[in-house]
Every structure is written in C-alpha cells, then in structure tokens.
Write a structure and sequence with these properties.
It is a single chain. This protein is an alpha/beta fold and 350 residues long. The protein has twelve helices and twelve strands. It folds into two domains: 151 residues, Rossmann fold (3-Layer(aba) Sandwich), CATH 3.40.50.2300; 134 residues, Response regulator (Rossmann fold). Helices cover 40% and strands 15% of the residues. The strands form three sheets. The protein has a six-stranded parallel beta sheet, sandwiched between helices. α2 packs across α10, α5 runs parallel beside α6 and α7 crosses α8. The longest helix has 18 residues. Bound molecules: beta-D-glucopyranose.
Length: 350
C-alpha cells in the first residue's frame, strides 16, 4: 500500500458501529443457483448486520432484468452503498447512473461492472492467478516442464459477459499455450479461443452437452488426458459427460480436471478422485474486505486497495482490492477447508 492510494482522503468523520445504525446497504447477488453466491450473500449480510447496518440482500436468479429492478428498488429504499455481483457486467450502466445521481456509491463484488463511471471500487480475488493456478496444476500433473507428452486436452471456460473470464482463461492459457504450440498438448477439437470455449451462464448442463459432443466426435478410440475447466459448475458438467462416456473406471481413469470455488459437490469429487483440484476463494475474506470498504466509504475515507492498474472497465480503471486464491486438492483440503472451518467433515460425508 502506498501513500498515493490515500492521496484523495479528505474525510475526518470516522465510521463506528454507532454510525452504521440504520444506514441501509444493498447487496445484489447474481443467483442462488450456485453455492458460492449463497455463501457470499449470507456472509455479507451477517457481517454488515454485526456492524449495525440495515441490509437489503437480493438474488437475481441470473436474470439481468431482475437484477436491474432489484437495484432500482434498493436506490428507492434509500440504500447509501450498493454491493453488486453482476450477472452481465455490461448491462448495468443506466441503473447505476440512477445510483450515481442519487449519491449512492457502488462497489463491484467479485465481477467488474463495465462501461460506467458509477462504480467506485472493486473487490475480488486475483482472477489472473486463478487461471494460472489451474494451468500450472495441469502442467505439473502431466509433467509438461519435463518434456512429457503429447497429451490430449480440451478447454471449457465461462460466459462472454463475465469479465472475470478474460483473466481466468488468459491466466490458464498463458501457461498451457506454449505446450500446445510445442505439440506436448493437443486439442483434438481445435477450439482454443475464449469465444469457442465459452459456457453461457456457467451452466453445468451446457458444459456437459458440449463435452458429450466432443467425446463422441473426437475421442472414440482416443483418450482425453486433461480438461481445463474454469469453474466448478463447468467442471461438474464435464465430469458427468466423461462418466457417461466410460471414464472413471480402473482402466479408464478420469483426466486431470480443474475447477474453481471449492463447492461442496466438487470437494466431494476431489476426495473421490473424480476432479483433480479446485481453486479456493475464501468468501469470508472477500466479505470482510467489502465490509471494510463500505465502512470507509461511509466515513468519507479512501478504502484500502492494492491494484490500481489492471481493472479497466472501458471508462476508467477501477481501484481494486485483490485477494489471493489458493489451489485445493486431495493433499490439502483438510487443512484449507476443514481446519479453517469453511466446511465440516460431516458436510463432506453427506
Ligand atoms: C466467479 C466464480 C464463479 C463464476 C460462476 C465468476 O465470476 O468469479 O467464482 O464460479 O462466476 O458463478
């Protein structure tokens, strides 16, 4: 943290729990359909309430119109700060203009909000590092740095409207592309661009359908060695396709498969040896950081940020706080997920 980050600091009235009493904060989350957003929403609500804020928490079921009208309501109801996990990062410009005119400050939560100057701050995990960790995991498991190969790999990433995917995909491909160029990795399908490998809405069923087609068309008589999956829902879809095609048996083990979020079904799959790894993003830490941002904004102070160059939303570089993601696999899940209280052993047994 440099002094420059605080250069704009002009406020003197400090935030205290007392000041927070009754101040309304809106938390708009994309969907309940994926475990992580439920955790994110619950953590935010709990931590804000503990500070004395009044919280309006809404989930938009992955429908942009629903999210827009929920945000409009939050503005009308007098929320002073909005924390928004966007569905389509480019679809909120006009509603956020309303927020700006009403003097409401906006924090982009996990996903950057694009093409608007109405977003003040961004808190997320280091999304490029998420991709790098996934790519490196595949490289290490296959022994690519030692020159091993050729291996067959396929790629399945997230939707075009999620800005994070640029970083997830970019980080992973920065590791894997050199091995593709050298012929140590072969993409039989031939699809290697973000567009070609996209999964609309991060939808598990769509990822499964695409992998079903890939396996039928390109892998009868050939073995798939690795699948880069950008998150856990995509990973689960891919795993179902592989199992229906006869993988996950003694003579046809699952390929190396990545994921992200450490969702419960995926951690179970890791323990069962069906998914190789996931990237753990501790949603408790993200919520803590965002609550600190809310406090600082309302005290007219400059929130803590640690990146002021990478997250350009098309209109401005949004000052960001990036947290560190960690890989989780069979070797460290107990320490990372159980010992830290993220999950209980019992939840993993269910
Ligand atoms: C988040 C991931 C999540 C995905 C699907 C991304 O923007 O960063 O953690 O898996 O959305 O909800």
């Amino acid at each position: 943290m440099t002094a420059a980050f605080f250069a704009g600091y002009g406020g003197s009235d400090k935030a205290t729990s007392g000041d927070a009493k009754g101040v309304k904060v809106g938390v708009s989350m994309p969907t309940k359909s994926l475990q992580r957003w439920n955790q994110d929403g619950a953590n935010m609500e709990k931590k804000l309430r503990e500070k004395g804020y009044d919280v309006d928490l809404q989930f938009a079921e992955n429908k942009v119109e629903t999210q827009v009208s929920q945000i409009e309501n939050m503005i009308t109801k007098g929320c002073k700060v909005l924390v928004v996990g966007s569905i389509d990062g480019s679809a909120l410009s006009s509603v956020l203009n309303e927020a700006k005119s009403a003097g409401v400050e906006v924090i982009a939560y996990d996903r950057l909000i694009m093409n608007t100057d109405a977003v003040s701050y961004y808190a997320t995990f280091d999304n490029y590092l998420v991709g790098k960790i996934q790519g490196q995991y595949i490289a290490d498991r296959l022994g690519l740095a030692e020159g091993k190969g050729p291996f067959n790999i396929e790629i399945s990433t997230g939707p075009m409207d999620d800005n994070n995917v640029n970083f997830f995909f970019g980080g992973a491909m920065d590791v894997l592309k050199p091995y593709i160029d050298k012929g140590q990795l072969v993409v039989r399908l031939g699809q290697m661009t973000r567009e070609q490998c996209a999964t609309p809405n991060w939808d598990e069923a769509k990822a499964q359908e695409r992998m079903d087609n890939i396996l039928t068309t390109y892998y009868t008589g050939a073995k798939l060695d690795a699948v880069l999956c950008s998150n856990d829902s995509v990973s689960l879809g891919v795993q179902s396709a592989l199992k229906s095609a006869g993988y996950n048996t003694a003579d046809r083990p699952m390929p190396v498969i990545t994921g992200q979020d450490a969702n419960l079904p995926n951690v179970k799959a890791i323990v069962a040896g069906e998914q190789s790894m996931s990237v753990f993003k501790d949603t408790r830490a993200l919520a803590d950081q965002v609550v600190k941002m809310v406090d600082a904004i309302l005290a007219k102070q400059q929130p803590e940020v640690n990146n002021t160059k990478d997250y350009n939303n098309g209109v401005k570089v949004v000052p960001s706080y990036l947290l560190e993601p960690k890989f989780v696999d069979k070797s460290n899940y107990k320490q990372l997920l159980i010992d830290s209280g993220y999950y209980t052993e019992a939840e993993l047994q269910k």
